[in-house]
Design a protein that fits this description.
Blueprint lengths: L3 H11 L12 E4 L8 E5 L4 H10 L3 E4 L16 H12 L2 E4 L2 H5 L4 H9 L2 E8 L6 E13 H11 L8 E3 L5 E11 L4 H7 L3 E5 L3 H8 L7 E5 L1 H5 L1 H13 L5 E4 L12
Parallel strand pairs: 2-3, 2-11, 3-4, 8-9, 9-10
Antiparallel strand pairs: 1-4, 5-6, 6-8, 7-10
Helix pairs in contact: 1-10, 5-10
Length: about 270
């Protein structure tokens, strides 16, 4: 069975830490690199629900997309929310590894997984790095054009259900062929999506004013599809699981978390 260090090496080959944004915190949060790993749980959020799942499943490693300790801390006492999670992980002998914006920018990465789930053929990054193949977001195309209303239904059917659901903003009859996607909060790329000339833009956490102002720029502005943050990034869990299954065929059991950690739980 591989050591934790070997599993981390496979993850970092797929999602190089050098691709992470300067403000990000990626890598091993807790755990002994020399310890063996037979079971891994992959999730979007390292929160109480997924730590419960990790303990119940008997894994030795949790691979999360979102960092647990994004901002600098001076301690992790067990009577604080995040400190409590660290203590639970250590007591259970479970390591935590986080791949965040390095997984966003990798090729393939988070937005590739979202595009694949929707049924897009990826063409290029939305916000490319100098190499032209890595970077944030993706631009892709559908096999055939379809009305925007049908496209919104396509997106909803492709992703796990959430209470807020999937929202569309645009002419329901507009034909959609080229699409920009960005897993996670993406209204910072509204300008890039417009400049790319795509028909629609799919992302999460769209705020009222940026979305409204974008739609007011004219009929050529991409139609918008709004998702919850968790739903937009959950397809990456399957992608990351394939990385480990390919690297350690038969030697590591990889589990994808089935627990919805989207914070919205009630629709009125």
């Amino acid at each position: 069975m591989p050591a934790l260090a070997e599993v981390i090496a496979a993850l970092e080959d797929a999602y190089p830490p050098a691709l992470a944004e300067s403000w990000d915190a990626v890598g091993l949060v807790c755990g002994d690199p020399a310890e063996p790993v037979t079971d891994v749980l992959i999730c979007v959020d390292p929160v109480a629900a997924t730590i419960d799942e990790a303990i119940e499943t008997g894994v030795q490693l949790v691979v999360a997309h979102h960092p647990l300790l994004l901002r600098g801390v001076h301690g992790v006492p067990a009577d604080t929310p995040k400190g409590a999670l660290v203590h639970r992980l250590i007591r259970a002998g479970i390591a935590l590894y986080c791949a965040h914006t390095n997984a966003d920018s990798a090729n393939p990465g988070v937005s590739d997984a979202l595009a694949e789930a929707i049924g897009l053929r990826v063409l290029r990054p939305l916000d490319p790095h100098p190499d032209g193949c890595t970077g944030l977001g993706r631009i892709g195309e559908l096999p055939e054009p379809e009305p925007f209303a049908a496209f919104v239904r396509r997106v909803a059917a492709a992703l796990p259900a959430t209470e807020p659901g999937v929202l569309g903003a645009g002419d329901p009859d507009r034909l959609i062929r080229t699409v920009a996607v960005s897993g996670g909060a993406g209204d910072g790329f509204l300008g890039a999506a417009t400049a790319a000339g795509v028909d629609a833009y799919v992302t999460a956490d769209l705020r009222h004013h940026p979305a409204g102002e974008h739609l007011e720029t004219g009929a050529d502005a991409p139609a918008l599809v709004g998702l919850t943050h968790w739903a937009s990034e959950w397809p990456w869990c399957g992608q990351a699981s394939a990385v480990l299954r390919d690297a350690f065929a038969g030697n590591v059991n990889v589990h994808v978390s089935a627990r919805r950690t989207d914070p919205w739980t009630i629709r009125a």
